[in-house]
User: Fold this.
Amino acid sequence: MSNNTVTRILDAAESLFAERGFTETSLRTITTAAGVNLAAVNYHFGSKKDLIQSVFARFLDPFELEIRRRMSEVQNPSVQDMLVLAQHSAMQVSLEHFNGRSQIMKLLGFAYNQGQGHIRKFFINRYGETFSQYVQHVRASTPHLGEEEFYWRINFMLGAMIFTVSSYDSLSEIGELEFSRKTPLDEMLTAVVPVVQSMFDAPANMKS
Amino acid sequence: MSNNTVTRILDAAESLFAERGFTETSLRTITTAAGVNLAAVNYHFGSKKDLIQSVFARFLDPFELEIRRRMSEVQNPSVQDMLVLAQHSAMQVSLEHFNGRSQIMKLLGFAYNQGQGHIRKFFINRYGETFSQYVQHVRASTPHLGEEEFYWRINFMLGAMIFTVSSYDSLSEIGELEFSRKTPLDEMLTAVVPVVQSMFDAPANMKS
DNA sequence: ATGTGTTTAAAACGTATGTTTGAATCTTAC
DNA sequence: GTAAGATTCAAACATACGTTTTAAACACAT
Assistant:
């Protein structure tokens, strides 16, 4: 059954990419960790680029479905609501398809820097429309901001979220050294919700 | 004069690293752009790793000096004060040593992901103490937060700042397509100050 | 059981990388 | 002007990479 090989490659790639990044992880490292032949990657995925995209797609495809479903059921959501909506969608996909062990969040941090690379194009082409809808929902609940100011605050929020979530593992370890308690992921996520809300509640301060 | 070669390498490396990242930029690309011989990098810097660190050090060494000087002169600063203090320090170093053309901010985005790499160690060893002092100043102005909650908010803030500043170029271009105006960097920086302040003003919501 | 299409295997290919070498050139001090 | 040191240069080195190739092993319908 080829499916097994494909899954093992995806699992190994996801966890190795999350540890070291894309360029820093070779196909030989991945295939060795997966216990499959080197050529299997090119046979099943075509190229390393396609493998990277497949790792993202395995999580983001069901995530997109879930978040669209939830968005269709919501009415006049607040920023908080939208944030929790995204969090719950991610949690559900992680539990349902990955036994809660997905490391995709760490990959987002790497992907974001890859500013002009193939990953960005892949994201925009495949998930851009859903992302637009999501942003529009947030926009509708923040009418006190001009569109330019809103745009920058969305990016502040994305930075804070992606950065914190993707670095959660190392950050929670460092924090443990400091105050002798490892903050559970869900507590950290709950803590961030009101902070993000306050980022959008802050009064407008750009000249329109 | 070797100094000229060294400077040309640093300049080329800084701008190429900022465009594509560290691993994705080869020494041959750098030396060609700088108009120097390939071996010059190893001769003057030792290795590629050392070159990367030197690129950071060229900016961060005077930046550290400047920010320490300003911190020694401040009394009971607010979060806003501390943020503006960092911004002004960066601006001054950029103007004084780089004619306002430094691209170091974009490199920070790349550096941050390189979680377990040599860059992180270099940062901690070389600038960790100053960073600690900076954080303590912010801490003093946010007594309503427990230390755990404060820790996470510092990281939210770092994420929002590093992410937005390091991606400013592409973000401002995308924004221009959307609302027909390219937000100047200083306006974006001014816009972020009250938002960050509000992130720390938000009431505590973690159980102590 | 046989034949067909799919998957795996080992090996090699071509290219790109960081680094090192040793001679040539330039700089500087006497 | 010449010797000594610092710098540049072209070339080669060793290694690692993604990808391709060709044949063997496998699955499975007939």
